[in-house]
Design a protein that fits this description.
Elements lengths: L8 E5 L4 H12 L3 E6 L2 H11 L3 E5 L5 H15 L2 E6 L15 H22 L3 E10 L12 H21 L5 E7 L5 H14 L3 H8 L8 H12 L10 E4 L6
Parallel strand pairs: 1-2, 1-4, 2-3, 4-5, 5-6, 6-7
Helix pairs in contact: 1-8, 3-4, 4-5
């Protein structure tokens, strides 16, 4: 049986995080070559050692245009092509009433989620092959509004608009563009979010989220990665402009 990404060249931003790393492992198992992009050299180094010769790493701030161009060029130099762009870098910001919300936090979240995804597509898409795929990590947060989560929720809604514009522009070239929308994931990122939210809610935020999720649990990075693989592979060859919910039913 042939592997789903045999010979494909893939860029994963936010590559040192749990979802980026889980996706890289799955892509590699399916025959891909992967460039992992992250701001943290310390986190990328052991991953590169673990994952082997078909992985390259690039330190970059995804919100910086010059650094984005550099990591795209690194992928082309290493692999000679780009088939899949998984725009996955993220940050959370803070939770506060609108009058008290930090402007700096809002700008920082927008820069990573929206500007970062925009720059990735701008620099990578001209070099992508027919049949290629761009996947943007959004969130169940793109389907709802919650008091105080101004940076994160606004950015996640904006990513959907970006995806839809890209999907229409790139369709004539046979490049598909979709967003993936995880619910709460059992990882360090979500644990930090829930630590802050617990104080705002006055109760344990992990239990609160589990009550909102019909499957009554957080997702695992490996589960989300399997849905990313679907969007990256030819299994989704007629899927573009879509919001793939991977949230345990939280958005229902």
């Amino acid at each position: 049986m042939s592997r789903a990404l045999e010979g494909k060249a893939c860029i994963i931003t936010g590559g040192a995080g749990s979802l980026g790393a889980a996706t890289a492992r799955l892509f590699l198992a399916e025959g891909a070559r992967v460039l992992l992009v992250d701001r943290s050299a310390e986190a990328l180094a052991p991953l590169a050692t673990e994952l082997g010769p078909n992985v390259a790493v690039q330190i970059a701030d995804v919100s910086d245009a010059a650094q984005t161009a550099t990591y795209v060029a690194a992928a082309l130099e290493r692999f000679g092509r780009i088939d899949v762009l998984f725009s996955n870098a993220g940050n959370f910001g803070s939770v506060a009433p609108i009058a008290e919300y930090s402007d700096a936090d809002f700008d920082a979240v927008w820069a990573v989620h929206v500007r970062g995804a925009y720059l990735a597509a701008k620099h990578a898409s001209p070099h992508m092959t027919t049949g290629g795929s761009i996947i943007i990590t959004s969130s169940v947060a793109a389907t709802r509004g919650d008091p105080g989560v101004y940076g994160y929720i606004t950015a996640k809604h904006a990513q959907t608009g970006l995806m839809r514009c890209l999907a229409k522009e790139l369709a004539p070239r046979g490049i598909r563009v979709n967003t993936i929308h995880p619910g709460p994931i059992d990882n360090g990122f979500q644990a930090n979010v829930e630590k802050g939210l617990s104080a705002e809610l006055g109760r344990d935020a992990t239990a609160f989220f589990d009550e909102l999720i019909p499957l009554h649990r957080h997702g695992r990075p490996e589960e989300i990665a399997r849905s990313v693989l679907y969007l990256a592979s030819d299994q989704s060859s007629f899927t573009t402009g879509a919001m793939l919910m991977v949230d345990g039913g939280m958005s229902v």
